[in-house]
Amino acid sequence: MHVICNKQLLVEAVSNVSRAVSSRNTLAALEGILLKTAAGTISLTGYDLELAITTEIEADIREQGEIVLPAKLFLDMIRRMPSEQVSIKTDEKMLTIIKGDVTEYTILGIPASEFPELPSISQTTGLNLPQRILKNMIGQTLFAVSTSDSKPVHTGSLFDIRGGELYVVSVDGYRLAMRKEPTGYQEDLMFIVPGKSLSEVAKLLKEEDADVELTVSKRHIIFQIGSYHVVSRLLEGEFLDYKAAIPNGSQTTVRINTRELIGSIDRSSLLISDNIKSPLRLYFQEGMIRISCSTAIGKAYDEIPCKQEGADVEIGFNSRYMLDALKASEGDEIQLVLNGPLSPLKLTPVEGDSFTFLVLPVRLKSES
């Protein structure tokens, strides 16, 4: 194989494809990127048996071929090239010369035959979404994906299409995040995408109206984003009945400036750390939120005004869970809906219902 390609295009492609490369694996080929020539292009693929990212870039193909090169080393080499063009040349013994101007590296590649085949996908369903919409939906729900293996199905986000609307839902046992958007797809469809895959998809999505194409089969999904294809396995299992988990009605409704509440919680939780845990105490009373915490280090107190309707209530929360939900919300103001000290707090937009976040409260001990 002998190809010459633009350095910047190659660096960008290798950098993005590398995200699907396994960092530690008994199969050496999985720690590499598969390079494969075609007519006027070279394709690059990273695959860790659960997630694959593949793309094509234009190249001057001097000699057809394919090879697997170690991902991290290959990326480091081409990043440091002083030239605008990079030449990659391999011989029949897999000895590979990577050259730019006078800078030259010689490394041993791995036969392409050792790289595992990507899953074949059949009986698919396709739908399209604007990239900025999907990026936003992932960004507003990914924080609530479970990192625990106790219920593997919750380490992903549920995509639930019904009645012409797409719901993306994440839960981790302590909180729930749901984002809703209308879609032109009219049939009912439900699948669960691993959080790791969605994280990588979000990095490739742009803030633009160009479509991302989703191709869904029974066990896999393909996201086509510009020149990139992301292939991910789907999770199997029974996802939480999220509609039943979201409480109806309210005893207390609060409207508050989002940035002000984030700032107040941030200040009040300064004495809380991974080693020193303590719930944050929020007291909603007569149009004021009084926020306090008490740890072995000391005490903190802050207060901010709000627009309150309904009963006064005192409730405790994990400060990080509250901040995650507030930072994922949109708009200058947010609405908090409470049903007493032991019911989940619901965060919604002031107008509409494009997102719903739930945060479970922490039972408070009476202050001495």
Description of the structure:
Strands 14-11-12-13-26-25-24-18-22 form a 9-stranded antiparallel sheet. An 8-stranded antiparallel sheet has the order 6-2-3-4-17-16-15-10. By secondary structure, the protein is α+β, with helices and mostly antiparallel strands. Helix 1 packs antiparallel against helix 2 (71-79) and helix 3 packs across helix 4 (195-204). The mean pLDDT is 94. The longest helix has 11 residues, at 7-17. 36% of the residues are buried. The protein is elongated. It has helices spanning 7-17, 71-79, 131-139, 195-204, 242-245, 258-268, 319-328; strands at 2-6, 32-37, 41-47, 51-58, 60-63, 66-70, 85-90, 95-100, 103-108, 125-130, 156-162, 165-171, 175-182, 189-194, 211-216, 220-225, 228-233, 252-257, 280-285, 288-294, 299-305, 307-310, 313-317, 333-338, 345-348, 355-359. The chain is built from 7 helices and 26 strands.
